[in-house]
């Protein structure tokens, strides 16, 4: 690796050489003239040769200084372009990481509206249930299912997670669900999901253990929802994540009662990203989109935990 003098001294030399004046270089770099002179002294000592000579009341470049100066200017121009390109790329791409259900069933269907409002901004959506270390990753923001604000992060509450049984009309035509107790004998999807216990425990007039150890077990709401739409059983789901399917009549809520899971969805990002225009744009759009989607908020999703 090439050994080069301190970059700070080279930067001072480049400015002083362009102006051929220490005072103007000091003004450009927000330094004192004495500091410029000190950096030049360090650089010349490192090189073992003078770069400037005193001429009258000013300074002039030596032959060595005149040979080196254009190459320094070109090098700084190249560095400036490299970082400008990196900054432009960063400013034009918004990287989001979000859990599978929220990303697939809620966010993906609405991101087109965000792109229409911000045509110069490309969105990259990463779908994962793993909590990404936002402070050390390339992602700008994350959407997380968490109980409350996280330390060292800017956190904006998005919505609660109400849960209730949902099933297809064809399934309900074959299996009469007149009371919640009928669910204890009906085919249920992911029957050992703790959301079933949460929902059963929230019923005042039904004291039972809602867990079963048999039945199809899926690893996400998305798969539970697809299986319920196909008529394979009743799923315990969060209705806001299946709003379109409910409105289309693909899923039906057999009981008006719902329980609320302890976690909610939050938009989170590191403090250092707070003032990025692309992050502010997503924050404002997302909070508005949640409010519009909630409508009259029948499930109380807008109430912070």
Automatic annotation (TrEMBL):
Q: Which UniProt keywords apply?
A: DNA-binding, Transcription, Transcription regulation
A single Pfam family it belongs to is HTH_1
Identify its protein family: Belongs to the LysR transcriptional regulatory family.
Q: Transmembrane stretches, by residue range? A: none
Q: What is this protein called?
A: LysR family transcriptional regulator
Task: Identify the PANTHER family for this entry.
Answer: HTH-TYPE TRANSCRIPTIONAL REGULATOR, HTH-TYPE TRANSCRIPTIONAL REGULATOR TRPI
Which InterPro entries does this entry report, sorted A to Z?
A: LysR-type_TF_proteobact-type (IPR058163), LysR_HTH_N (IPR000847), LysR_subst-bd (IPR005119)
Q: Which residues form the HTH lysR-type domain?
A: 5-62
